[in-house]
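User: Predict the structure for this protein chain, please.
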Amino acid sequence: MPVYEVDDACCKLAAGWMIEQCGWKGRTWGKAGVHDKQALVLVNRGGASGIEITRLANEIRKSVFMKFGIWIEPEVYLNEVKNKAMVTKYAEKVKIYNHYTNYKGRLFVKTLCDLFNDAAEVQTELYKVDVDTLNAQGFTWMLHRLHILLHKMPLKEEIVTIETWPSGIDRLFALRDYRMFREDGEELVRATSEWMYIDMKRRRPLRLPENVIAMSTEHNIPKLVLAPLLDEKEFGGERQGIRHFTATFDNIDFNGHVTQASYVRWITNSLPFGFLKEHVLTEIEVIYAHEIMPDSQIHSAYRMEERGENEVVVWHEVKDETEHLTHCQAKTVWMKQG
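Assistant: Here is the predicted structure, written as structure tokens:
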């Protein structure tokens, strides 16, 4: 690797050489790319947004880190959050493919969570607080609470828009909101969430960084308001059913523990098939308490209560195999189909 001595105490590495060794020189990435003669220069191939340029820069930095263990810091100043007009909602169109849906042709709620996470990841890259960037520094995000209100689930082959934005700060929690709507503007889903900034080595929450606080508060985007659904005092009583699951390889995320979407899948899949066949999920709120590690045996239990002719409320608890450790609690609302 080319090295240039600055003085007796330090030296300068050739960032351009490392980028070229990772195969980026002359490469096109969407509407952006890397100059074919100078690997340190990013170019707009035509129509690339600032977000796309920043995403390309982050992808390059990640690949250099993976190959050489070196995290490149950009020399240019990224004008991130200076006034309230600069933070905007991130939106992208998504096609609901067949494998995203259940046998009724409706989007899986687990896949909905994955799509929300994908959209949020794109926006956090702009502010250099995405998961890969944080992981390289020894930090990560961990979900504490998720609340989803479902007016309608999109159907297979539909084209919908997902939008997301950082919506505020509450103590140690960074808040993030989501919406999904049809091309005619009809809202299908809205959701709120609370995230903790975690020290990966100590597995403990930290105070939020200044740039996270700035991007979450220095804008004029209204926060979504959902009436609280889950009251932890309501839990207890006789359980009506339980299913057992194992945390397998495809349940594990970048932090080495079970994905938050897998919790949601185990919560809904604990219910009898006959019930799921006749009812549609309209609301879910989950509080995540303890992480689940690979190969863990999980017990997902529920208790139901009918509310009127068509509505059913269900309380859920996901525990370890000893039944002593609660991994999450949730409450769901279901409507019987006509």
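The two ends are 68 Å apart (CA to CA).
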